[in-house]
Amino acid sequence: MQRLWTPHRMVYVADTHQPDEHDCPFCHAPELSDEKALIVYRGKTAYALLNLFPYNNGHLLVCPYRHISTYDEASAEEVAEIGEITQTAMRVLKDVMGCHGFNIGMNQGEVAGAGIAAHLHQHVVPRWRADANFFPIIAKTKSMPQLLGDVRERVAAAWPVDPGPAS
Length: 167
Prior knowledge:
Blueprint: H1 10-13, H2 25-28, H3 34-37, E1 39-42, E2 46-50, E3 60-64, H4 76-97, E4 101-105, E5 122-127, H5 135-138, H6 148-158
Antiparallel strand pairs: 1-2, 2-3, 3-5, 4-5
């Protein structure tokens, strides 16, 4: 087995503080304007916003409004809406960003790599055929061709009024 050393990732694991509902960015975001919080959609029990530290352009997070830390704590209604928002996010990102695939997942707990383990969130990361390179590892820099505010505007504008299941 080969190892790829990435010491720059220590910033994500070195801080052991996990926010409670009083200092949680995912609890605070819905209190802000959509533009300021980078929110692209507000549902009944969950919402979608752009990741402030994206892996790729268009990297969205789907969060319940409730401050829960793991998927098994989510209600059936939250699970269903998180799934619906994720499906809609995929459709919107394909249309707006022209991506070819996705990485979708939830890191449950600090030991599993969750930067904010205290508040459940699902990553929806658009991928393109030629988007993998070693620039982030070698130069500690991720090339982001679009500004977050511009991406938020495009994704929010393309989000359907009724994001229910496709027919």
